[in-house]
Amino acid sequence: MNHDDDLPPADAAAALRLIEEQRSMTVRGLDPDARLLYWPWGVAWLVGFGLFFLRFSPGERSLVHLPSWLPLIALFALLLVAAAIQATASARAYGQVTGDSARRGHWYLWAWGLGPVSVYAALGRISEHLPNDLAALLWSATAVGLTGALHMAGGAIWLDRDLFRLGVWVSVINLVGVLAGPGWHALIVAVAGGGGMLVAGAIARRRQWHRA
Q: What is the reported pLDDT for 143?
C-alpha cells in the first residue's frame, strides 16, 4: 500500500503550495456562488417588473393584454423562488460559521424580514386613498428603495464593495423611475435594476474566481 500521499511535503515550496490549495478550498466552501445570490433576483425583477410595464404602461395603457392580476402574482412567485435559492446557497456556505459573522448574518436576515413587513403595513393604509397608478408607483418605489438601502447596509456590514455599489445603483434608478412617473418606473427597474443585478452577479463571480 502506497502512503506517499500521506507524507509531509519534502520542501518549503511544496508546503506553501499545499497551504494555498487548502486556503483556496476553504474560501470556495465559505463563499457561495455569487450567481446564485444575484441572478435569481435579477431575473425576478426583469420578468416581474417587465410584465408590469407591459400591462400597466404609461398613460394607463396596456401594451400587451394580460390579466390585471398576472404581473403581481408573477413577481411575487419569482421573488419567492429567488429568496429560496439565495437562502439555500447561503445556508450551505455559512451553515458552519459561528461568532460575530454568524450573528451579523442572522440580524441582517431579520432586517430583511421585519423591515418590509412594517413598511408595507403602513403602505396598505395609505395606498387605498390614491389613484391606482400612483398607488402602484408608491408600492413598487418603496419596495425597490428599501432593497437598495438594505443592499448598501449589507455592503457596509461585510465591507462588500459589489453589494454596496449595487445598493447605490438600485437607489439611483429607483429615484429616476419615480421622477419619470407611473409605468416608466417599472420599465426602468426591470431593465436597469434586473439587468444591473445580472451584471453584478457576473462581476462578483469573476472576482471570486480570481480570489480562489
A: 92
Tell me what pLDDT residue 18 has.
56
> Is pTM, for the whole model, over 0.70?
yes
Q: Residue 154 sits in which domain range?
A: 31-92+111-211
Angle between helices 70-94 and 12-30 (to 10 degrees): 150
Alpha helical stretches, state H, 3-69: 12-30, 34-55
Distance CA 60, CA 52 (A): 11
**Residue 135 exposure: Cα atoms within 13 Å on the Cβ side:** 11
58 belongs to a structural domain: yes
Give one DSSP letter per residue of 57-77, joined into a string: BGGGB-SS---TTHHHHHHHH
* Residue 3 resides in a domain: no
- Structural domains counted in the chain: 1
Distance CA 141, CA 145 (A): 6
